[in-house]
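Lecture notes, part 5. Sequence design as translation. It can be helpful to think of inverse folding as translation between two languages: the language of shapes and the language of residues. The source text, in structure tokens, appears below.
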């Protein structure tokens, strides 16, 4: 076993190396100072034709390199079913009109568009008719509700960090309330220069967010008692050295399309939004920490600031405005001497890692809902990623949004003070790409997508960033755990009973002098009692496997890590399918 752990450790060290190599391929692009010089000399001599030409050629070369499939949306006669939709109709109707796509009725159509509140309805709609109306491609992954709260995201990221500490370091350290109150107080009182931001669990578009100046801020009452704690809050380390755009803090809203959970297939859209604050950024002091226009990038807040700048009609050419396109912000960063290709690559890597963290949990909840029909459930999902960049060009995932805003209107103040609502050309431009191209890709089967598009290549505005193959070995460990859980559950996914769980102990590789068969019963009972559920769900199962792994290997291996131990247990258990498939009556 020690030998196994050693070879596994070597493998993993190699993976780390590979990972670093991946990062190093970034050095193909000019480094910061080189780029700074190049951009500077270009800017200083605008009339310098040769340089201008070289710059253009370089740009052209880059564009040529991009491998892309171009699909004219009009050439695909899609029909969209809006039967369960109540929101987001303006953008969908706009896209349908533009491409002359038809509206489908009843259970017909290519795409079933369902809005944020319709997941349940869509589930009913599809679940009941799934076997008959399998051609419908549904615009929500049912399990995605899981990632719509910050607490859930936090707990998944904490789990991944526990297993892959060097990889999952892009989500700021987060405490959930009230569970982590004591740990937070301890860290806060160390006062080691870190600031903290408190946010309501569910996205509130900036409302209720504050920077914690004293522990008392976390209570609804002057009494520092846990019963008065602001319960549905998370507290997060505040990224206090943000990269600035026009001297202002900003974040990116990027759109990620998932078209298949197994194999995991995902894309990033080339376009997105940059949302700026409306007051110049300064390091946190007690006098500025409540200034939301300096510290929070939410559009919904900043649009009320007197410094708010609406984007110009020519937003693709003029890089101005409190809300801009991703492309526009990248142009400005490039001019500032920032190594934008490197930044883009880092952002993509971060998103890929994040997705590998959440996808197995999404798969689990999707399987709980769809049971044995889950593979036939034809779903896709557009997720909004909010990403903050620090001055070391490190991307931080601040929040993900399972229902990113598809609003394409904005309120404009007239000169006489009255207000009017009109279409925002910028939002319409970005969000049309995001949705229209998602439809075009989602109607292809996973196999077709892998064969016809392929990793690293674009289909219209989307670049495939995951093609089912984990970019780092073992990053699919949680997928294997879902497989194992499913094997053990048998026909009823989501409810693992004690008898089935204890079949693991039939595998001679999974018992030793430290862990005997009866320990399996004890482990099961202990977790079941804690969860107050009759059977183990996936999260309980994970806890049970961790417990088994620890007991089986901890005291034996000097280089024990949770990741290695769980990998061993899962691999051994999956290698012995005959153990798990024995008829129920033949236990042990
Ligand atoms: P909401 O769901 O209400 O929009 P977010 O988590 O997106 O909440 O936070 C709102 C804004 O606060 C972000 O857009 C960002 O500007 C700022 N912010 C949030 N968390 C952090 C953090 N950890 N460090 C720095 N700024 C943050």
């Amino acid at each position: 076993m020690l030998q196994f752990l050693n070879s596994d450790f070597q493998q993993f060290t190699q993976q780390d190396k590979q990972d670093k190599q991946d990062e190093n391929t970034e050095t193909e692009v000019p480094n910061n100072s080189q780029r700074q010089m190049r951009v500077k000399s270009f800017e200083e001599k605008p009339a310098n034709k040769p340089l201008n030409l070289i710059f253009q050629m370089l740009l052209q070369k880059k564009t040529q390199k991009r491998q892309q499939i171009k699909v004219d949306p009009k050439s695909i006669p899609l029909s969209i079913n809006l039967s369960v939709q109540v929101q987001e109709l303006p953008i969908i109707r706009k896209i349908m009109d533009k491409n002359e796509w038809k509206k489908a009725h009843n259970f017909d159509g290519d795409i079933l568009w369902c809005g944020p509140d319709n997941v349940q309805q869509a589930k009913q709609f599809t679940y009941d008719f799934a076997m008959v109306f399998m051609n419908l491609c549904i615009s929500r992954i049912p399990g995605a509700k899981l990632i719509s709260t910050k607490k859930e995201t936090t707990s998944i990221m904490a789990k991944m960090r526990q297993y892959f500490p060097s990889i999952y370091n892009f989500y700021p350290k987060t405490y959930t309330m009230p569970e982590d109150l004591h740990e937070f107080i301890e860290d806060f009182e160390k006062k080691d220069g870190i600031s903290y931001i408190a946010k309501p669990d569910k996205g509130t578009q900036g409302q209720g967010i504050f920077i914690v100046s004293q522990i008392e801020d976390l209570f609804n009452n002057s009494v520092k008692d846990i019963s008065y704690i602001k319960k549905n809050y998370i507290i997060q380390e505040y990224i206090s050295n943000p990269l600035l755009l026009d001297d202002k803090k900003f974040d990116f809203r990027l759109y990620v399309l998932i078209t298949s959970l197994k194999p995991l297939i995902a894309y990033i859209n080339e376009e997105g939004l940059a949302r700026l604050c409306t007051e110049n950024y300064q390091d946190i002091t007690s006098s500025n920490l409540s200034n939301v226009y300096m510290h929070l990038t939410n559009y919904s807040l900043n649009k009320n600031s007197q410094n708010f700048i609406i984007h110009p009609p020519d937003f693709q050419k003029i890089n101005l405005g409190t809300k801009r396109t991703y492309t526009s912000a990248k142009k400005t960063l490039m001019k500032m001497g920032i190594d934008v290709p490197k930044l883009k690559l880092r952002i993509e890597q971060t998103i890929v890692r994040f997705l590998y963290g959440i996808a197995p949990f999404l798969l689990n909840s999707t399987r709980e809902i769809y049971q044995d029909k889950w593979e036939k459930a034809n779903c896709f999902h557009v997720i909004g990623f909010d990403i903050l960049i620090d001055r070391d060009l490190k991307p931080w995932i601040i929040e993900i949004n399972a229902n990113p805003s598809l609003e394409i209107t904005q309120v404009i103040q007239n000169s006489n003070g009255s207000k009017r609502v009109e279409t925002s050309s910028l939002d319409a431009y970005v969000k049309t790409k995001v949705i229209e191209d998602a439809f075009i890709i989602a109607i292809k089967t996973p196999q077709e997508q892998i064969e016809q598009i392929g990793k690293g290549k674009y289909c219209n505005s989307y670049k495939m960033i995951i093609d089912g193959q984990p970019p780092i070995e073992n990053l699919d460990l949680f997928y294997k755990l879902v497989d194992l859980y499913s094997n053990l559950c048998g026909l009823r996914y989501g409810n693992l009973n004690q008898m089935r769980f204890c079949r693991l102990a039939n595998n001679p590789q999974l018992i030793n002098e430290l862990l005997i068969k009866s320990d399996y019963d004890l482990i099961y009972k202990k977790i079941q009692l804690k969860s107050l559920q009759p059977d183990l769900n996936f999260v309980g199962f994970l806890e049970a496997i961790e417990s088994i792994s620890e007991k089986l290997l901890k005291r034996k291996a000097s280089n024990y890590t949770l990741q290695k131990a769980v990998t061993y247990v899962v691999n051994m258990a999956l290698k012995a399918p005959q153990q798990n498939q024995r008829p129920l009556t033949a236990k042990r």
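The translated text above is only one of many valid answers, since several sequences can fold into similar shapes. The chain has a mean pLDDT of 84.
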